[in-house]
Amino acid sequence: MTTKEVADKLVKLCSQGKFHEATEALYSTDIVSMEAGAPPGGSREAKGIAAVKAKGEWWSANHEVHSVAVEGPLVAGSHFAVVFKLDVTFKPQSKRFKMEEVAVYKVVDGKIVYEEFFYSM
Amino acid sequence: MTTKEVADKLVKLCSQGKFHEATEALYSTDIVSMEAGAPPGGSREAKGIAAVKAKGEWWSANHEVHSVAVEGPLVAGSHFAVVFKLDVTFKPQSKRFKMEEVAVYKVVDGKIVYEEFFYSM
User: Fold this and answer.
1) Three-state DSSP class for A62?
2) Are A79 and B71 within 8 A, CB to CB?
């Protein structure tokens, strides 16, 4: 798949809330995922598909998603950017909030090998 | 200015090739600019408006711009992303090439305080 094809598929799956399916279909086993900031005692960076899936599973288990909108993609060579706008409840605290972030992805050989998220904390 | 207003103005100025004007109008004195990779012997990061202007002036002096297209912006909270597609000649080597990159910006108090570029090298 070209960068644009990967980007379009990511947007389609994530728009439907199918984050896990997007990871399964599009991510390299060597994926590196970078957050805007580190969790307490943790790292900004998750390396490898197992660590990235674990991060996604923790997120899905702890958030109820009321709505998700994905804007983009903007594609440039091996990279693309999208925007996520989510309305979620953080279940452990029953706290509902809206989050908006820019996500940038790098594609090599038809798979996403790097992702980075930009948001204010 | 809101993030969207800053983003729209950046897109407008850069689409016209007015990169210097964009820096003058929109950048914080405390701007941090991050390239995808470091130049030989240099750093990925330029800190402060003087260093960022110097980087821009070097670039402008060494490249002839045949065309520039800016796609976006995608806006999320304090951040936005655009794509640059340029057709340029690197003057010292008379080497013409096309470059495509994703750029991500962070806006605080109506000024750009952070920019990062994503491209393959």
Assistant:
1) helix
2) no
Query: What confidence tens digit (pLDDT) does each residue in A21-50 have?
Result: 999 999 999 999 999 988 888 899 999 999
Beta bridge partner(s), residue B67:
B87
Q: State which H helix or E strand residue B28 sits in.
A: strand B27-34
Tokens of residue A48, six digits: 């490898």
Work out the number of other CB atoms within 10 angstroms of the CB of residue B81.
Answer: 30
Residue whose entry in the numeric block shows the structure tokens 């994530």: A14
The rounded radius of gyration (Å) of the Cα atoms in chain A is: 14
Say if the Cβ atoms of A120 and B84 lie within 8 Å.
no
Q: Please tell me what DSSP assigns to residue B58.
A: H
Rounded to two decimals, the ipTM of the complex is: 0.94
What is the C-alpha R_g of chain B? 14
Question: What is the least distance, in Å, from the CA of B84 to any CA of chain A?
Answer: 8
d(CA A38, CA A45): 8
Contact B99, B86 (CB under 8 A): yes
